[in-house]
């Protein structure tokens, strides 16, 4: 098992490469609750937990009072696509039938979105209402509906991944495969298209490509399912999930960059639309980011909130806040992996180590830009060695590599 994990990790790095009128009224229930999703534990993967403390570092969603997360991915993605198609009529200056959008949402998605995250549903409902009445600029409404639905799909993916892993551990292979098939459908039809855009924007290819990483993670998970190997599945799902996570993070960050550039050039017409996009993508991952640095996550939420003047959004500040939170996530998993090795729980240690490495990988663009290609390569070589040391239960060696990795990250 150890040899397989180390081999695949070695090959893994080869693959992985507004017109804003009365917004306070329209979004009263959604935006004015202190911080945007404060009502559900900062939009965390644990929406009903009142005290997350150290558990915020964990990426796996708690399934609260329900045993199974059910989803007809094909049906729900079709509903999402149908809503988008109706809303995108506005791109061609055609009239949008908001009643059609509302009917699709309420009949096909609302109950499920409410079950996963009621705040997302409130936001989508408010955007549909505001778009229909004209109280909210129609393109801003469109982006909120689109991105909060994507955030819902991301949370569903996490829940399904966790339950598939549990099914595999319980020798319920068919149930695990059924849930994984839903994850794969969401990846192919929702997550990969988003990742493709960010790969193109940031010129990420080969081992740096999020699309390649998502596909690689899915392939490795599929092999683990075929072998009924729950330990491998738990490790490889981090490749899939955190690559999707990275695409949402970079999407949100990119809109801050676009806004700053537009303000510099005096092109302020679409600032609120871009703000809504950055805000929507952030919601999917905000709760997790809070586990790395809660103040940074909350400040990001405030910056992207539609209550904030979009012309004040500073791309450098946004980048700094994201970097701080993601560094915190990586450091947390380094601690968790070391503690798991110390307790003799190597299976958990490898999962924690892969998560830590994936958060380090998220900062690749920053490392290259700020510290250079050579330092970037050093960082990822150290990450590989750290994973191998964790897998081999070499605590002292792992500690050395961990300190070197975190030292590099602290230069950002």
How would you briefly describe this protein structure?
This protein has 412 residues and is mainly alpha-helical.
Give a structural overview.
- 74% of the residues lie in helices and 0% in strands.
- It is mainly α and 412 residues long.
- It is globular and about 65 Å long.
- The relative contact order is 0.11.
Which whole number gives the mean pLDDT?
Answer: 86
Helix percent band: over 70%
Number of strands: 0
What is the global morphology? globular
Secondary-structure class: mainly alpha
Low-confidence stretches: 1-67
β-sheet strand percentage: under 5%
Order of helices and strands: HHHHHHHHHHHHHHHHH
Main beta sheet: strand number and arrangement?
none
Cα Rg: 21 Å
**Tally of DSSP helical segments:** 17
Distance between the termini: 36 Å
What would the keywords be for this entry?
single chain; 0% strand; 17 helices; mainly alpha; globular; disordered N terminus
